[in-house]
Amino acid sequence: MTIVEPTAATIVAAAKLLTDGKLVAFPTETVYGLGGDATNERAVAAIFEAKGRPQFNPLISHVLDAGEARRFVRWSDSAERLASRFWPGALTLVLPRANGSAIALLATAGLDTVAIRAPSHPVAQALIREAGRPIAAPSANRSGAISPTRAEHVAESLGARVPMIIDGGPCLVGVESTVLDLSRDAPVLLRPGGISREAIEAVIGRIALSDALPTGDAARRSPGQLASHYAPARPVRLDATTAGADEGLLAFGPDVPSGAMLTFNLSPAGDLAEAAANLFAMMRALDRPGIGRIAVMPIPETGLGLAINDRLRRAAADDGKSDRR
Description:
Blueprint: E1 2-4, H1 8-19, E2 24-26, E3 33-37, H2 41-51, E4 60-62, H3 66-69, H4 77-86, E5 91-96, E6 113-117, H5 122-131, E7 135-136, H6 151-158, E8 164-166, E9 178-181, E10 188-191, H7 197-204, E11 208-209, H8 216-221, E12 236-237, E13 247-251, E14 262-265, H9 272-286, E15 293-296, H10 304-317
Parallel strand pairs: 1-8, 2-8, 4-6, 5-9, 10-11, 12-15, 13-14, 13-15
Antiparallel strand pairs: 2-3, 3-7, 4-7, 5-6, 9-10
Helix pairs in contact: 1-5, 2-9, 9-10
């Protein structure tokens, strides 16, 4: 772990780490972010792993401006008005994923929406520009710790889990960004933050409050209260050691049973980070007509396996479709 001052050379070095799939902690006007390439599933998996006690909650993808955001989300009139007023700044917009969006499915927890914002901090802007891609970045702290507003907070919380920390001084806002969901019929405030509800309503009119706003660690771990995840249409069978002819098999490890209609292996080597990176894309690939059920091989309940299994259990329990033989 190295703490560096923000210079032209260190920004280039940090951007190289990001494009190589590594992590970089950097300042924004809200809190310090633990950044990874938002288009790289393995880099996103590394973010969850570094934070500890991982949960696959949606992450905010940071871009330069509204023009870049349009490459990844379906823009709207409300988004245009809000971005014109508050971007760059402490407002995150949740919008439908654009066709062909490069944002990793793991970064959106498998949802068809993307949480996106343009930070105003000059170091964050310089890093995004140099990296040439969106940066997924939750707060740069271990899960359960207080959100960091100084570089030394990041070092104390994450240590060697992050190769580089860019010290941009104390964060000016000091609380997380406001998260506003524009993917529904009416705007919904998912998380209060650096931009007030009143300021937003002055631009687009009245907005609804979510039924149960998260607090404390729950609010810090995800952009809002997006607890729902991608749920396959096919029923899910967990801890499968065999595969039926009408099943799609989500395998793990080198020993894969035969007989499935279609098989995808999360990680032939049994690597949990690789499995996490492949999870949502492979689930979607198996959720297709002709497949009666998705069978999932056992995943170890350690490290990222905890988050993988949590997601799989949610999928299996959805609408009572599960047949857990």
